[in-house]
Amino acid sequence: MNLLNALLWLIGYQLAGEFVCRALGLPLPGSVLGMLLLFLTFSVRKTIPEHLKQIAPALLSQLSLLFIPASVGVMLWFNVLAAHAVAMVLIVIVSTLATWLTSAMVLHALQRRKLHGRPV
Fold this sequence. Notes:
By secondary structure, the chain is mostly helical. It has helices at 2-24, 30-45, 50-61, 67-76, 78-83, 85-115.
């Protein structure tokens, strides 16, 4: 029953994300928005349901299966990807640097707030 409850939560939020993205025409995968909504729900509740805490490690251990469709896509579209390899490498480098910079700035801001005695 715990597995069923956990899957209902995850699939429900994925479907909610898909619905919102399609209804509003957002250029975002519905599953990403669904996970964001799930995170916001847990943030507001300040707790994670017990059945999700129990099932999450088992689901995460199977996460590598989700890379199979992406690998097949790379094999099918290899010629197109190879033609744009330089651009993709530059995009990966720039986005990685942007992520590092943003993370460093957030960490710095949080440390300053903590140093000045303000709650984080």
